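JOB MANIFEST
job_type = single_chain_structure
chain_count = 1
residues = 175
[input]
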Amino acid sequence: MRILAILLAAWALWAGPLNDLIGKPLPHLSLAGKEGHTVGGAPFDSRDLRGKVTVLFYVDPDKKDLNEDFTEALKAKHFDRKNYRSVAIINMAATWMPNFVLNAALKSKQKTYPDTLYVKDFHKKGVKAWHLADDDANFLILSKEGKVLYACSGKIPKSEWPGIFQTIQRAMNGR
């Protein structure tokens, strides 16, 4: 019983900061130059995520397949791109893989999925600014105003998928 209490307390400390984001504006993050940038080389600024509902993946490359089933289900929803966008920020400092390998993979991904904005974070600035889980897969939903509507680290539970899809749809409808 004591071990369970210790584990629950540790989980609460770990999950707390991410859960503290919900209902609040996403803290500002800017990536440019040696700090990071889009796959095309342009600077990234989280303020630019306002105006559309945004699904944001912040991922350790070693965990890129962790939520592949969810990603496919999300794509199958065919949300209207006038009101919806997807962003994948890659935590380049969280892997043993060399950057030249990741760069080639990301260029290919950007061509395959042109509607998703791919961003490279070379120094874990997103982990620090947003209190995300390092060396993991993080997923957030942002309202058109930039408020965090949902946040999760690790494997997205299948039981939460319907609620996530409803949250996206409601936010797109302005509710």
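[summary]
Residues 2-20 form the longest helix (19 residues).
The helical segments are 2-20, 68-76, 99-112, 125-130, 161-172.
exit_status = 0
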